Each structure stands twice: as C-alpha cells, then as structure tokens.
C-alpha cells in the first residue's frame, strides 16, 4: 500500500511537470491548425520543451499504472486529485507564473473537492463482469460527442483566445476521459487474452487520444497556462468518475453521509474551477 501511495504521489508530481513543459513548448511551436494535423504535430515536436514534456508524461503514465497495481483505485485517484496543488507551486516557483489569492483558492477548493469525490466513493470493484456494455457504449459516445462539440464551439470567432483555450482544455480533458474509460475496459479484457484487447474500444481510445492531443496543444497556445492545465485535469477526472459509476458500477457512496459529501465535493470542484480562469501572467519562454 505504501509503495502504491508513493507511486501515485510521484505520478501526480510528474504529470504536472509534463504539462508545464508542454505548455512552454506549445508557446514556442507554430499554431496548431486543424487543416494541417501532420504539419502541426511536427511543429510541436520540433520544440524541445514539448518533446521533453511528452517523454515526462510517459514516465508519469508508468507511475500511474504501478500505483493502480499496488493500491486501491479510490486512494490513487485521491492522491492524483491533490496534484493540482503541485501544479500551482511548480508553475509559480519554476515556470514564471504568478497566481493571486483567487487562483490559489480555486486550486485548493478544486483539489479538495476531487479528493473528497474519490475518498467517498466507497469500495471499487474492478472485475470485468461488473461492467455494463450498454452503459459503456452510451457513456463513451456521449462523452466523445461532448468533446467534439466543445472543440466546434471553441472555433467561433466571437470568442477571445482565452475563452477558446479554456474550452479546448475542457474538450481535451473530456477526450482524455474517454480514452481512460476505454483503457480501463481493455485492461480488464486482458484477462481474456490478447484477443480481448483487439476491439473497437482500442480504436476509440486511439481516436480520443489523438483529438485530445491536438485540442490540448492548441489550448496551451491560446489560454492561460495554469487554468488550461487545471481545467483539462478536472474534466478528465470527472469524466473518469462518471464512467466508473455508470459503466463499471462504482458506488456513488456508501450511505447518506458519503452521498451528501460527494454532492458537496462536486460543488467545491465547480466553485474552485470558476476561480481559476482569472488573469495569470507567464514569463517569456526562451527558444531551445
């Protein structure tokens, strides 16, 4: 258990370092264009900061998988939720951002709310027999459609760059959540052999991940860095929680106090997120 908690803590820290590296690299890369996906990807990875961010993100993913293997999902999720505090500290101390009292309040409220949602979820079952195929199809299609709709809305000219960036950040997080839900199913399907992994859900995870990649990169180019990263993390976390409840039948809460606590926690997440988009300024990144 202690080893799993240590890995989860490490994953939370490394994930936010990766996001901040990618944010710096995205600002130095050419603008991401939907009509030129390959050219946009090449431009992003030509930035050493962005490439370094993705290498660090792979390390964070490995730590996350290790944590899930050694500790209960609810505890790992609670630790990862608290990673928003790491984001604020790292962004201000090492990446040239300045967060006011409003932003710190938002970060703390959101991290607290996400941690409470995870802790009050009760015992989680991970056996594949407990999932619902109908719910899996409905949830994946619904969340995927929401992510695509948010991307479309963000393209409206009347929205300013900051609003576009925040919308794209939420869209990226939602799509990362689609990928996470599909990967959860595929991880459980491994018990049935390699054949269980070769399915339409593999394509779903890949499609969602590719869209999330471009949405996240463009969001980091347009919006305030800390707010965009926080919105992406919150959206991904909430999408995974919804998938856990509706698809894998994770309990909403054990008893009335836990259910009420979860409702309050969702309120904290919403209020905290509302505080974070206030103006932040970043130091000029140097080309590398």
Kindly describe this structure.
The chain is mostly helical. It has one domain (2-275). 75% of the residues lie in helices and 0% in strands. The protein contains 11 helices and no strands. It has helices at 2-28, 37-45, 48-70, 73-81, 83-94, 101-119, 133-154, 161-189, 200-222, 225-246, 256-275. Helix 1 (2-28) packs antiparallel against helix 3, helix 1 (2-28) crosses helix 9 and helix 7 packs antiparallel against helix 8 (161-189). The radius of gyration is 18 Å and the shape is globular. The chain starts with a helix and ends in a 13-residue tail after the last helix. Residues 124-128 and 279-288 have low confidence and may be disordered.
Highlighted features:
11 helices; globular; mainly alpha; disordered C terminus; 0% strand; 288 residues
If you average the pLDDT, what whole number results? 83
| Quaternary structure | single chain
Beta-strand level of the residues, as a percent range?
Answer: under 5%
Secondary-structure-based class equals mainly alpha
The low-confidence runs, each spanning 5 or more residues with pLDDT under 50, are 124-128, 279-288
Number of strands: 0
Helix content: over 70%
Shape: globular
């Amino acid at each position: 258990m202690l080893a799993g908690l240590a890995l989860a803590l490490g994953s939370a820290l490394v994930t936010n370092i990766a996001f901040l590296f990618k944010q710096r690299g995205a600002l130095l890369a050419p603008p991401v264009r939907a009509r030129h996906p390959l050219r946009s990807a090449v431009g992003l990875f030509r930035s050493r900061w962005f490439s370094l961010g993705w290498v660090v993100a792979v390390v964070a993913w490995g730590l996350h998988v290790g944590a899930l293997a050694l500790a209960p999902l609810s505890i790992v999720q609670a630790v990862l939720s608290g990673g928003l505090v790491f984001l604020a500290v790292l962004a201000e101390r090492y990446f040239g951002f300045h967060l006011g009292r409003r932003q710190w309040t938002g970060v703390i409220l959101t991290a607290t709310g996400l941690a409470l949602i995870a802790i009050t979820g009760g015992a989680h079952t991970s056996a594949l027999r407990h999932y619902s195929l109908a719910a899996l199809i409905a949830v994946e299609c619904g969340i995927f459609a929401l992510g695509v709709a948010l991307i479309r809305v963000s393209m409206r000219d009347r929205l300013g760059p900051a609003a576009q960036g925040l919308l794209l950040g939420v869209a990226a997080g939602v799509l990362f959540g689609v990928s996470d839900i599909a990967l959860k199913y595929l991880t459980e399907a491994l018990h049935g052999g390699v054949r269980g992994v070769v399915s339409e859900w593999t394509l779903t995870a890949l499609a969602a991940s590719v869209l999330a990649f471009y949405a996240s990169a463009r969001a980091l180019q347009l919006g305030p860095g800390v707010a965009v990263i926080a919105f992406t993390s919150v959206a991904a976390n909430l999408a995974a929680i919804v998938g856990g409840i509706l698809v894998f039948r994770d309990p909403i809460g054990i008893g009335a106090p836990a259910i009420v606590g979860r409702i309050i926690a969702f309120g904290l997440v919403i209020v905290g997120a509302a505080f974070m988009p206030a103006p932040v300024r970043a130091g000029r990144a140097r080309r590398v």
